[in-house]
Amino acid sequence: SKKRSINNFSFFEYSMIEEIERKVHIENELHGNLKDTAIHFVVQPQFDSTNNEVIGVEVLTRWIHPKYGYITPPEFIGIADNSGRIEELTKYLICEVFSKVSKWIQDYGFNKPVAINITPKLLGNRKFFNDLIHFIQFYNIPPQMVDIEITENANLDTDQNILSNIAFCRKYGIRLSLDDFGTGYSKLADLVDFPIDKLKIDKYFVDKIGKETNAELILHTFMNLAKGLKCDVLAEGVETKEQVDYLNSLGLTYFQGYYFSKPVSLEEFEQTYLINN
Length: 277
Ligand code: C2E
Ligand code: CA
Ligand code: CA
Ligand code: CA
Prior knowledge:
Layout: H1 2-31, E1 39-48, E2 53-65, E3 69-71, H2 73-82, H3 86-108, E4 114-117, H4 120-123, H5 126-138, E5 146-151, H6 160-172, E6 175-181, E7 198-201, H7 203-206, H8 213-229, E8 232-236, H9 241-249, E9 254-256, E10 264-265, H10 266-275
Parallel strand pairs: 2-4, 4-5, 5-6, 6-7, 7-8, 8-9
Antiparallel strand pairs: 1-2, 1-9, 1-10, 2-3
Helix pairs in contact: 3-5, 3-10
């Protein structure tokens, strides 16, 4: 009926306006003082399955908004990246986390790499990397404890700014990890010349273990590639013992995933892995 379609239309219109309002609201808050937002940071430990020891942590950003509730990182990271605020947000993360990590170093002799996600856009920004060095010095963090996670989607082989920033990180001894490995665009051959410490195999492939022989074949190939590149390899999003056992059988022993630990607050990480050890 006519009435109904009018109602549907106005509902559609209304939700579109809400959607736009939400985006503008989020963007405005990202442009304000980040300390005034509910943005905070958690860490997900990474493990070596041969001894169950923590080999590092990845920092992940969380935003439980007073009005919108949980906002997914891809949504607000995307908005920050597109509206010129990713640099500020990432520097906020670095300062918050480094101040904690410097305390962990002093109090517990913590010495494991702390991984930070860098968007392809930020990867080309030299000012950001100069600031990163300042923060490393200010908080007294050994550069080898800083692990920069970059995704394959970045134009790793063609963007000169990116290449020069990667060389800059190398010079200071900062680690580099290739995130979401297998899902991006990088031509595998180009990786041979690319200085990388760790490949992080995406959950996409881990999820297919025991289900698709093709994916298992690909995992074999990744392991051989990592061996050839002499870099570490870690599997992401590992949720089951079956996945761990299968990857172990390929010689992979570095893991990150709910099977070992969900992301936890900095306080919980300290309590569980530093104080009680
Ligand atoms: P990512 O870098 O691949 O991070 C791993 C994601 O997988 C995280 O989602 C983590 O919570 C989730 N995860 C880890 N283990 C498991 C598992 O066993 N099962 C399942 N289902 N999920 C698992 P999260 O925190 O929602 O982040 C999503 C993406 O958002 C990240 O993917 C990363 O690309 C981006 N992101 C998050 N925080 C930041 C940040 O501070 N800066 C930037 N640039 N990107 C960020
Ligand atoms: Ca990551
Ligand atoms: Ca990843
Ligand atoms: Ca992923």
